[in-house]
Amino acid sequence: MVLVLGRPGSGKSTLLRALAGKLESGLRVSGRVEYNGLESVPKQATAFVSQYDLHQGELTVQETLHFSHQLFGSSTLS
Description:
ATP hydrolysis activity, mainly alpha, transport, ATP binding, ABC_transporter-like_ATP-bd, P-loop_NTPase, two-stranded antiparallel ribbon, 2 strands, globular, about 30% helix
């Protein structure tokens, strides 16, 4: 898990949307992402949960991630 911290308007949400492949149409990015020196495919390795999503207050962070994965995820989760 990674924390992205910054002032309002600094681009945190835009960065995370870009990594998750959820940018608004018309916005383009280029480049590549490396993790531990290996190229990564962000759409396959990342997820984005907006601060405006409806969350179940009774669930832990881990339970929330597993719940979201079951609804929208790929075949693997670690």
